[in-house]
Design brief:
By secondary structure, the chain is α/β, with parallel strands linked by helices. Helix content is 38%, strand content 21%. It has an eight-stranded mixed beta sheet with strand order 3-2-1-4-5-8-6-7. The radius of gyration is 18 Å and the shape is globular.
């Protein structure tokens, strides 16, 4: 049985390609930071492990989905995998890692403050954590898998309450990516116009997950069918880092202990 929802974009599905490439970009942006002992929190399907693990002394990855961890352990025997729900991260002692990466995870964590405090605890002095999360400015509809989403100043305020040094950038798309975003926005609006009672914000998140996944999957396939060339041609190179965090589809946060 598949463990993937539309919330976990897969490299194996052509219709997921624009989202997959957007997620891959974070790993390319992380490359200059990677050194020493590295922890990835929320490795998902392992889309960035092969790119990063040979550039450090030790690579540790954790995720809550046991079948994913089992498969990745066979695929990457050089990597140390842990299955756990976080926070806390009790498997790791204080000051264990030089670098920590956690991409598209913090929005799923109920206690986001404790999450950042745990990251700081297990970082070595002078160590850095890289975090990405969707920029709420560009969110098209409620995502029932997310506890919350952040604007750039909100994430900065939260991170500054834990870390002394915080830098926030954006991951933005070029014209090709933003054309996909425009088409997606129009398609989502055609669906949500029927939600005249604003049930997406009134109903419990657990009630919305199945219809959200179903409609999201239908929408992505429709976008691919209507403009397959656009969907299939987007690569990680079509996403760039910007110093104006609010302009990014995703926020890219560098935290230094």
């Amino acid at each position: 049985m598949s463990v993937y929802t539309t919330e976990i974009a897969s490299a194996r599905l052509d219709s997921d390609n624009p989202i997959h490439q957007r997620l891959v970009k974070a790993y390319y942006l992380a490359l200059p930071y990677i050194q020493g002992e590295v922890l990835e929190i929320g490795c998902g399907e392992g889309r960035g492990i092969e790119l990063l693990y040979e550039n450090c002394q030790r690579y540790v990855a954790i995720d809550k989905i046991a079948p994913v961890i089992e498969r990745l352990s066979r695929q990457f025997p050089e990597v140390e995998f842990h299955q756990m729900n976080i926070p806390p991260m009790t498997d790791f002692a204080d000051g264990s890692f030089d670098r920590i990466i956690s991409f598209q995870v913090i929005e799923h964590i109920k206690d986001d403050l404790s999450f950042l405090q745990e990251i700081k605890r297990i970082l070595k002095k002078g160590g850095q954590a890289l975090i990405t999360t969707p920029n709420n400015k560009f969110t098209l509809t409620r995502n029932p898998w997310h506890q919350r989403e952040y604007l750039s100043h909100e994430l900065q305020q939260l991170a500054k309450s834990v870390f002394d040094e915080v830098q926030i950038y954006g991951i933005k798309g070029n014209k090709k990516v933003m054309e996909y975003y425009r088409q997606n926005k129009l398609s989502v609006q055609r669906i949500t116009r029927f939600d005249i009672l604003d049930l997406q914000h009134r109903l419990p998140a657990s009630w919305l997950r199945i219809p959200y996944d179903l409609l999201n999957r239908i929408n992505r396939r429709s976008l691919q069918r209507d403009d397959d060339h656009l969907v299939s041609s987007i690569s990680h190179e079509d996403y760039q880092l910007t110093e104006i965090a609010g302009d990014g589809l995703d926020l890219f946060c560098v935290l230094t202990k």
